[in-house]
Design goal:
By secondary structure, the protein is of the alpha+beta class. About 25% of the residues lie in helices and about 20% in strands. It is built from eleven helices and 16 strands. β1 and β2 form a beta hairpin. The chain is elongated, with a radius of gyration of 25 Å.
């Protein structure tokens, strides 16, 4: 930013100035060279006569520019600005304040059961800056470096609902499994793929194979492993699989689940499984996990949700997803836990979930 006779001008250093200069009128283009001779850039924002704090305007421009900067680019200003980084490359970030209570930082990821347009259903504002400690939820899909994103949001004055420690406790099976051993299938986590003999020391075939964070999009052949020969094939594909290869391998006891009609060919068979969302220990929504299958229901869902409530109590993660399922012999078990910020809604109703969260905040829960 440059000042002349108390008039402030923000100089814009663009990655592709020719593109934008080409959009100027002939008269405006004639001003480019004189501006540069006076020490300005080719394109500038003149704040003369504008009733705004010029330093806040500069800070806002830097923040927005950083959100859209390609990987490796640095966005700087001539005065310290709040730290900001690109959350997702080549995506448009939406930052809204719902009902003046909850900030949501979101990006469309192109998945119908994840994306949600908050502005269709809630009163939303787009503040330049937020009151210190404003509660915040991140909805940008899977987050590669949650610690870094958490710090960015804190620098904006926001308070993300889950701390990095809580995010890891919800997301990593190695963190949540020790707290739920009596309500989920027996599990071993390995640093690398074990050989068949190691598996046979602890498990009978078939086994359930997955990564420490997730399966390979529910691929049945890479998940339900029937014998040694099948495991040899699955091991080779695990190492090359784009979803699995970076995750620690997890072997779980195979527990038959109560089957339901429908599902998708090549995927793990659809079962009596449900996804539940928990906000500070209270259930704010639940629905069928296998939303692609024919509609299914059961009479004792309250028993399953009671199990999920106990899991949420033990994990103590403010915004949590607990997936539960009914076994073929009629027991309820926990299938998986996740940070709800990264989780799709499945067949749960997103509007109802966010309405319940807003109501909770109005009641003082944060």
């Amino acid at each position: 930013m440059r000042s002349r006779q108390c008039n402030h001008v923000i100089c814009l250093e663009l990655r592709n100035p020719e593109h934008w200069i080409g959009k100027l009128s002939p008269t405006q283009r004639k001003l480019v060279a004189p501006n540069q001779r006076m020490g300005y850039c080719a394109l500038n924002l003149n704040l003369s006569g504008v009733a705004a704090d010029s330093h806040l305007a500069l800070e806002f421009i830097v923040k927005i520019a950083a959100l859209h900067a390609p990987d490796g680019d640095r966005v700087t200003a001539t005065r310290p600005a709040r730290r900001a980084v690109a959350f997702r490359k080549d995506s448009f970030m939406h930052v809204v304040l719902l009902e003046d209570l909850l900030a949501v930082v979101s990006a469309r990821i192109g998945v119908a059961v994840y994306d949600f347009d908050f502005e269709l259903y809630f009163r939303c504002r787009h503040p330049t800056f937020f009151d210190e400690g404003t509660p915040c939820v991140l909805r940008v899909g899977a987050v590669e470096d949650y610690q870094a994103q958490y710090q960015v949001l804190r620098d904006w004055g926001l308070r993300p609902v889950n701390t990095p420690e809580q995010h890891e406790r919800a997301s990593e099976l190695a963190m949540w499994y020790p707290l739920l051993t009596d309500m989920t299938p027996r599990t071993r986590i390995f640093e690398s793929l074990p050989d068949a003999a190691q598996i046979e020391q602890a498990f009978d075939w078939p086994i359930f194979l997955k990564g420490s964070r997730q399966t390979s999009k529910h691929n049945a052949k890479l998940s339900v492993i029937g014998d040694r020969e099948h495991y040899a094939w699955a091991s080779e594909h695990y190492r090359r699989d784009p979803v699995l290869h970076w995750q620690r391998p997890v072997v779980r006891e195979f527990v038959p689940l109560q089957a339901v009609a429908g599902g998708i060919a090549g995927k793990v068979p659809a079962s009596m499984e449900f996804r539940s969302f928990w906000w500070h220990g209270a259930c704010v929504g639940w629905g069928r996990y296998w939303y692609q299958a024919a509609q299914y229901a059961c009479d004792d869902i309250d028993d399953g949700l009671a199990l999920a409530a106990e899991a949420a109590r033990r994990l103590q993660v403010p915004f949590l997803v607990v997936d539960i399922a009914k076994t073929a012999d009629g027991r309820w078990i926990v299938i998986e836990c996740n940070d709800a910020q990264e989780s799709g809604y499945a067949a749960a109703a997103p509007r109802a979930i966010w309405s319940a969260i807003i109501e909770s905040l109005q009641g003082g829960a944060a």
